[in-house]
Amino acid sequence: MTPLLPDVFKRVTLAPGGVRINTLVGGADKGTPVLLLHGYPQTHVMWHHVAPVLAEDRPVVLTDLRGYGDSGKPSGGPTHEAYAKRTMAYDQVRVMRELGYERFAVVGHDRGARVAHRLALDYSRSVTKVAVLDIVPTRHALRTADMKFGLGYWHWFFLAQPEPLPEHQIGADPVGWVHGRIGSLRRGGQPIDPRAMDEYVRCFRNPAAIHASCEDYRAAVGTDLDDDDAAAARGQRITAPLLALWGEHGFVGKHYGDVAAIWREYADDVRARSLPCGHFLPEECPTETTAALRDFLKD
Question: Is 279 assigned a catalytic role?
Fold first, then answer.
């Protein structure tokens, strides 16, 4: 157990569909459960400020997405569908069902927010509320990509390059890559806890994790975009209440302008606000992030 999370959280390693999903569970025996999904290049540890407070009101589940942290890392294959958000969402709903939670809220940051988006579409009867941190929908990001997006989020296109180019480059210096990615997107607020950084680096030293994370981004520009286009074509929208939070000093806040309006094109009931930080809201602005989530998640 990481020292950053209190003993109230217990590790329960599950393997829905045969892929191990590193899972921690804790919190009150009341209220609607909430599932917390991390972003890139991190693990469940990124919620170490937020999870203990949310756990005062409800059961809290933290997982490492497939391919990340201490979860399983299956081969992506030629279509990369093993890392499609639809596949990753299915992992998570099966985890929650194995824990006995048929209905739950979900909060995701970065890549985890894209999994949360797909969860809310594919499992609308299970997801009671959804919060997405510092993203716009994948479809909007890619269909409106311009030079500023390419320069600001260049790693999307680098990581999506065919194997083994990005794997080889990142594998030459995984420590520098993790510190560089996190450092370049942080904009004020609290510094990242060194113990959390050590945990991200530990997990990213694994060549299988590097490959899996590249597969995640390869899926984004292929099957994920296809799935999102298909959902838009049939008029599918998120029906659960949605909270969008973003860092006003980060790329999302500066580049997209009215983030709330973008999400209203994809969801029926949107609440939205910015926080005074960059990309890593739960670590840069933990008090504000926790307060916003706690208020939104009230039963």
Answer: yes
* Residue partners of 100: CB distance under 8 A and separation at least 6: none
Which distant-in-sequence residues (6+ apart) come within 8 Å of 105 by Cβ? Answer: 32, 33, 34, 35, 127, 128, 129, 130, 131, 297
Helix (H) or strand (E) holding 78: none
- Cα gap 215→72, rounded to integer Å: 13
Please check the confidence at residue 76 and state whether its pLDDT lies above 90.
no
List the chain domain ranges.
10-296
Residue 2's identity, in one-letter code, is: T
Claim: this prediction has a pTM higher than 0.90: yes
**Model confidence pLDDT, tens digit, residues 30-46:** 999 999 999 999 999 99
Active-site option among 38, 48, 80, 279: 279
The 127-133 sheet, strands edge to edge? 10-11, 23-27, 59-63, 34-37, 104-109, 127-133, 242-247, 270-275
| Given 64, 70, 110, 227, the catalytic residue | 110
Question: How far from the centroid of its chain's Cα atoms is residue 137's Cα?
Answer: 12
What pLDDT is recorded for position 3?
A: 72
Distance between CA atoms of residues 159 and 97, nearest Å? 32
Tell me, yes or no, if 29 is annotated catalytic: no
CATH superfamily of 10-296: Alpha/Beta hydrolase fold, catalytic domain (3.40.50.1820)
